[in-house]
Structures are given as structure tokens and as C-alpha cells.
Design brief:
24 strands; about 50% strand
Length: about 290
């Protein structure tokens, strides 16, 4: 375990299910979701200012496209978000009429396609899929038979797509074609045991190493996607670590989301910061901006 600079709460809020952290470089703020409370959180580190916007649909993830516009995958499709009002403009409906499924994690690739996956809210296996909202507004099916679609990342050279279907406890890699958006050649990078926790959200750094949040694992791990070796681990004071991203003016700060859903009263007493947003300032690694390749 590597010794990291001091871990701190980014602000004093807690979420029921904190997820999908993204750094907004234009506005110098970190954005993240409380999925089940239908909230987008905004925190401005320079001013220590925290804002919350309410949505009228359950969001699974948020992302910024190449133009800096805020998009979301909500319970029934892809939408543009008005961050001031929380208003949603639906861009494409997906799996309409399937009340058991909702969108979960997702991100944009370097061409601006918005990838996001669905999951069964009742926990039924294999009912989810991964879709991409293409830049022309059409929707393409990418992966079928998913349990709980979670972390995504692309290699810095855009030849690999990394993906997590959480119930498998695996991170997989696909060959990726940036121009077409096609994926093929699925293979397992790393498998986690039952005692490790469940892989959830994921990000990538400038060296091409992936950072994986472990739900019920109390940590984030940095993994070499070529060898599958765990290079570093970041212990957290909470069990339900959900995702992570790099932020700050040089993408040098590591932001980490967490959840408190499903924890008992006794567990919450032992984890008073469950659901908090954490940050490691000057973490010693740098994030990767996919739009500056």
C-alpha cells in the first residue's frame, strides 16, 4: 500500500448513493450525483461552495461532451441537463417501457459518443445492456447480457475500452476503434475475490493505469491493465466506495465518491463519513483528458 497525501472530505455533505464524479475544468468544479435522491451536486474547491440541483428523473451518470455541455443518462434514456434548473431535455429514449431497468454508469469517448449501461433495479441478472449515444443523435447497442453496468475507461491511445459489469467481479478489455466506435476481442484484465469487494466505478490516469473503486472493499486500487497487477491501493474510512476521477487545474487531485445506502445503524456509527465526497490533493498522479489527444 502506497502512502498517499492526506485524505480529506471535500465538503461536509453526504449522499445516499454518491456516484459519477466528473471534473468541470471550465467552471473549476467537481460534479457528482446522489442517484437515489435524484440530485446533482456541485462543489467549487476554490470557494468552498456547494450547490445541489434536483432532477425529476433518476440519473445513472453525468458527463461533459466535447463542447462542455452536461449530459445525463437517466432512467429511460439520454438527456441534456440545465445545471441551473435541473431541467432535462431528452435526446433519445432507450428501453422505454422497461420499468425494471434504469441507466447506471457511463462516460463520453474521445469522439464525443456518450456510452452508458443499464441495470435491473430488482437485481435480476443479465437484463442490462450498454448503449452509445452517437454524435448524430442515434443510439447504438454495444454490449448485451449485463448484470450491473459500471466503470468505463479508454486507454490514452484509444485502442482499448475497459469495462466493469459489477456482478462478474471482473474488469475486461476490448479492442476499440475510435473512428467507428466498434469494440471486439473481449478479455479479462483482473478478477476480484469475494473478500476484495465488488468493482464499481473507474477512471484512468495519464500513464494508462486504471483506478477502480471497490464497493464493500474499503479502498480504491490502481491496476496495470496490461499485466493485471495491483500497483497501489488507497484505503478509505468507508466501505461502499463507488467511483473516482481526477480534478484540479492539472488533474492532480483524486476525487472519490461513496455511499451509505444499505448500511445498518451500527455500521453507520463506525462509518460516519459514509456517502461523503473525498479528495486527495496532489495525489502524485495525473488524470487524462480524453478530449486533448
Amino acid at each position: 500500500m502506497m502512502k498517499f497525501p492526506q485524505l480529506a472530505n471535500a465538503d461536509n455533505s453526504t449522499c445516499l448513493l454518491g456516484e459519477s464524479p466528473i471534473w468541470d475544468a471550465i467552471n473549476e468544479r467537481i460534479l457528482w450525483l446522489d442517484i437515489l435522491n435524484r440530485e446533482i451536486h456541485q462543489f467549487y474547491p476554490d470557494f468552498q461552495e456547494h450547490k445541489i440541483v434536483q432532477l425529476d428523473k433518476i440519473p445513472g451518470c453525468i458527463t461533459l461532451n466535447v463542447r462542455g455541455e452536461l449530459l445525463a443518462a437517466v432512467e429511460d434514456g439520454f438527456a441534456a441537463v440545465d445545471i441551473e434548473t435541473g431541467g432535462l431535455t431528452m435526446l433519445a429514449e432507450v428501453e422505454k417501457g422497461n420499468g425494471d431497468n434504469r441507466f447506471n454508469d457511463g462516460k463520453c469517448d474521445a469522439r464525443g459518443r456518450f456510452w452508458a449501461g443499464t441495470m435491473s433495479m430488482s437485481g435480476k441478472p443479465g437484463l442490462g445492456s450498454v448503449y452509445a449515444l452517437e454524435t448524430n443523435g442515434s443510439v447504438t447497442l454495444k454490449i448485451e447480457g449485463v448484470g450491473c453496468s459500471n466503470g468505463m475507461a479508454w486507454s490514452p491511445d484509444n485502442t482499448k475500452f475497459y469495462y466493469i459489469d459489477s456482478p462478474t467481479k471482473q474488469v475486461v478489455s476490448y479492442d476499440f476503434d475510435l473512428d467507428s466506435g466498434e469494440i471486439c476481442g473481449k478479455r479479462v484484465i483482473i478478477s476480484f475475490s469475494s473478500g476484495d469487494g465488488t468493482p464499481d466505478g473507474m477512471t484512468i490516469d495519464s500513464e494508462g493505469m486504471i483506478w477502480i473503486a471497490l464497493w464493500d472493499g474499503w479502498e480504491i486500487v490502481r491496476v496495470n491493465p496490461v499485466t493485471g497487477h495491483i500497483l497501489e491501493s488507497v484505503p478509505l474510512p468507508v466501505s461502499r466506495v463507488t467511483s473516482c476521477t481526477f480534478g484540479g487545474d492539472q488533474l492532480q487531485d483524486l476525487y472519490i465518491t461513496s455511499a451509505r445506502i444499505g448500511l445498518t445503524g451500527i455500521e453507520l456509527k463506525k462509518q460516519p463519513f459514509a456517502g461523503a465526497l473525498f479528495v486527495i490533493k496532489n495525489a502524485g498522479f495525473q488524470g487524462f483528458n480524453i478530449y486533448k489527444i
